[in-house]
Amino acid sequence: MTMPFGYVSPEQLMKDRADYARKGIARGRSVVVLAYDDGILFVGENLSRALHKISEIYDRIAFAAVGKYNEFENLRIAGVRLADLRGYSYDRRDVTGRGLANAYAQTLGTIFTQESKPYEVEIVVAEVGETAAEDQMYRLTYDGSVADEHGFVVMGGQAESITTALTERWRAGMSLTEALALAVELLGVDSPTGEPRQLTANQLEVAMLERARPRRKFRRLTGAALSELLGQEAEPGDVPATEGTHPDEREVSPPTSLAGGSHEPSGPDPAGSEPTS
Fold first, then answer.
1. What is the pLDDT of residues 146-181, one digit of tens each?
2. CA distance readout (Å), 61 to 128, 157, 213, 236, 277
3. Domains of the chain, first to last
């Protein structure tokens, strides 16, 4: 049988889409998610104070992402709305990280197979439990694949090298200071050359799911509070430590759907990568 002109086999088409998405994700800076003794820590290099890679989804659930900002922001907003609707319709306890991860997996899988361009994103949905054994971390890739991770997850940039280092150095029961110092040290070598860099508080986006907090577990670390944990001097204009630990407000943008989104302009990304974040 003669194949039509321009025919591309399904296997080749899926491979091309996967290669395209992986290259886009790898251009961004890494985000590290790791468990510590009192919860789950999220650390990423991000020069923007307005465009977040790490956000709250619901009471005890948080979201971290790398890739195209406008694409993962659409996913975040849809997740917030799905969680709010489910919690309002049934019970707040019915909103789980596993349920949100399944919803994201279906959406990403549909986009990967049916749309002309896959999402250039990789995300983590994490839920803190009453004990460390109940903590959950789900990693979702551009094609809808979902994996239940334990201990730590690394996305974007030089993820493989950081994962290798964490495998050797991470341990259960680390304190917040120890986990933060390890994540920042490894992010400092997240570059093609592998040259170490000293990252400051103003270059980082840091948040936590704290087990001991009442109901809403999510908290950002900024300003003097973050500088103090890093053992660095606070920058001029940093808020005091007591003000830098306020709960995050779950900002919600204009209406969207799980399948929404478009490319952002080419060039350096305001979230600190090129052109992904």
1. 999 999 999 988 899 999 999 999 999 999 999 999
2. 7, 24, 13, 33, 21
3. 11-230 (3.60.20.10)
